Amino acid sequence: MSTSVATRPPLRRAVGRAVGSGLLGAGTTPGRLLRVEAVLVVAALVLGALGVLGGMARLSAVHDARTRIAALTTGAADLYQSLADADAMATTGYVSGGLEPASVRVRYDADIQRAGELLTSAAGLLPPGDPAIAAVATVGEQLPVYTGLVENARTFNRLGLPLGQSYLAGASKLMQSTILPAVEQVRAAESAALDAAYRQGAGTPFAVLAVGLAVLLSLLDLALRERRRTNRVINLGLFAAGLAVLVLVGWWATAAVVAHARVGGAQSHSDAGAALDEARIAVLSARSNESLVLVARNSGGGSSDRGFEVQLARVVGADGLLAAAQRADPDLADRVAVLRSAALAWDAAHRGVRALDDGGRYPEAVASVVGHRPDTSGGAFDSLDAAWAEAIRQERAEYAVDVGSAEATLVALPWVSAALAVVAAGAVSVGIGRRVGEYR
């Protein structure tokens, strides 16, 4: 069945008319117009292709940032925190002597179970060849070794044998020197992937804007030339084509500006959340050190409280992690003030523990570390940890809002680009085609 003239693509109609009339190679006005038509139709379709491909790439990057990469980044941070908290609970339970408090054991078991779930989730989300796969495998292999060492330490501790301290120290060393650094590799890899997604999703669309403006100027120049030549005020086809290209370029510019703002907000929340995650991990490390010092003293050895001081200084110092979180997201000022106050309250309670231990009141020092009353070190730590968990939750929720808004801004961009490019190409063909028809 033959294709009707009305249903032929614009470029085929232009070439068909040119060949049929023998005007394409002639140095006549119709020949010139047909050549211009072919160039403008191709340019409009190229603009549409750039819009579709560019829009899909941006949309895919932002969608990936909102879903897979965000899940991996958040999961790696949660995995790190679960493991660090498990280590802190293991040392806290051990220092109590004999049978550890039930609440501490429950929290430790929950941390280990959560870590296993997060490892399984991360392994399922990582694409083949991802550099984080080896790190996830390391954590999966070493975590059972760690829990075995902790169980041995508990067994000897219940029997009142000092050998348990060696197992506990070995477990803590394995966690700090092997397992947590492997998790940090996952965090670093996914943070880099998230930054790349941000750049792709919020970059300036130079190609679309340049080609779009070139097509728009070409249409305007052609319209002005034809107006001077024919004394006609307007060519409806060229006007419609120019309007379609203008809307396409304007839509892209607006979407790019809005997406840049939304992605920028999401990145601020992401950076602030990362600083809060790292600060919470430092606090958990300080908590573990607090208990390890008491464990070492009870076993006749010595251990420095320097680890606690260093980790807390990383958090509350003038250029510390809380300050970094506030720089990334200035709206965090009130939350940072609450966290800083809670951290300093725990520091004061910890100093009380050191005063009790150094004064020969070891049982009271242990009671303060494992206790939950507000006036104990354990109670102050519980309050700080709860405040930290809430701050991180709120920051992640605000991140999800901003990155979701960025994705919503970009979702229609490929389809709008395709539709407007086809309209522009068709309008060029109609506008010039009518002008050429006047010469027949």
The N- and C-terminal alpha carbons lie at a distance of 28 Å
Shape: elongated
Beta-strand residue percentage: under 5%
Give start-end ranges of low-pLDDT stretches: 1-8, 17-26
DSSP helix count?
14
Q: How is the main sheet built?
A: none
Q: SS-based structural class? A: mainly alpha
Q: What is the H/E string?
A: HHHHHHHHHHHHHH
Task: Please tell me how large the radius of gyration is.
Answer: 33 Å
Mean pLDDT across residues: 84
Q: What level of helicity do the residues show?
A: over 70%
Give a structural overview.
It is built from 14 helices and no strands. It is mostly helical. Helix 8 packs antiparallel against helix 12. Mean pLDDT is 84; it is low at 1-8 and 17-26.
Write the topology of this structure.
Layout: H1 10-21, H2 29-66, H3 68-95, H4 102-125, H5 132-158, H6 163-202, H7 206-230, H8 236-298, H9 306-316, H10 321-328, H11 333-358, H12 362-370, H13 377-410, H14 413-437
Helix pairs in contact: 1-2, 1-14, 2-3, 2-6, 2-7, 2-13, 2-14, 3-4, 3-6, 3-8, 4-5, 5-6, 6-8, 7-8, 8-9, 8-10, 8-12, 8-13, 8-14, 10-11, 11-12, 11-13
